[in-house]
Amino acid sequence: TSVAAVIPAAGRGVRLGPGAPKALRALNGTPMLIHAVRALAASRRVSLVIVVAPPDGAAEVKSLLDAHALPERTDFLVVPGGESRQESVRLGLEALPPQYGIVLVHDAARPLVPVDTVDAVIEAVRDGAPAVVPALPLADTVKEVAPAAEAGAPEPVVATPERSRLRAVQTPQGFDRATLVRAHESVTDNVTDDASMVEQLGLPVVAVPGHEEAFKVTRPLDLVLAEAVLARRRL
Ligand code: C5P
């Protein structure tokens, strides 16, 4: 069965500071989205990439893709996105032609994911998992807090989940297409990743090793880190 990737890239990226939509900001002179598209198209198994553009930016994204060298063996589609990441992914899925049985969902904000991670996710779906996430152990201890008594006051800590059992989850997340479509049809809560919607259906989700270079570019320091990773790759 063929593999397609949906790249939600419709976010504004407010945490990154003022400027263009996050996916269109440059890393070493090339828009983050182009890095992300190349990272997915680097897998020989991915034959279609659907980019979900900012609602008013589909034409701009289309010409951006046309202006950059991308692999000939890969097809590209651009569709306008929505208000939430979840809605943007759903709009991407609606544009998916019938022959694709495996779907990857990958954040444009993770431009540097290595191809080995992409292939490991695809492999696990082909081996029969309905949903696969790349995941890494945490460096920090994580605590659950309750709301502060008043704005600006310290937050009470209520729990410390055992760190060795926690994972930080990345993208691309890989899915059996029918499972992901059903998840998007039936789960209406606002979620931060696609696999959690499959969990809500009661279906198994498995984790494979993620990669430190698949980090999400969210805050200004992440741009510095991403450019350092690119510089190291060129050595
Ligand atoms: O905001 P966050 O970092 O979780 O966004 C993850 C990905 O979802 C980004 O690639 C962003 O462009 C995308 N997104 C989207 N549509 C939205 C919000 C976020 O495609 N409405």
Automatic annotation (TrEMBL):
Enzyme class, UniProt record, top EC level: transferase
Catalyses which reaction(s): 2-C-methyl-D-erythritol 4-phosphate + CTP + H(+) = 4-CDP-2-C-methyl-D-erythritol + diphosphate
Single GO term (MF): 2-C-methyl-D-erythritol 4-phosphate cytidylyltransferase activity
Pathway in which the depicted protein is active: Isoprenoid biosynthesis; isopentenyl diphosphate biosynthesis via DXP pathway; isopentenyl diphosphate from 1-deoxy-D-xylulose 5-phosphate: step 2/6
Keyword line: Isoprene biosynthesis, Nucleotidyltransferase, Ribonucleoprotein, Ribosomal protein, Transferase
Enzyme Commission code: 2.7.7.60
Site positions (Transition state stabilizer): 15, 22
Site entry: Positions MEP for the nucleophilic attack: 163, 216
Pfam families: IspD (PF01128)
Keyword hit for Cell membrane: no
GO cellular component, one term: ribosome
Family under the similarity heading: Belongs to the IspD/TarI cytidylyltransferase family. IspD subfamily.
Function description: Catalyzes the formation of 4-diphosphocytidyl-2-C-methyl-D-erythritol from CTP and 2-C-methyl-D-erythritol 4-phosphate (MEP).
HAMAP family: IspD
Protein name: 2-C-methyl-D-erythritol 4-phosphate cytidylyltransferase
Source organism: Streptomyces cinerochromogenes
Encoding gene per record: ispD
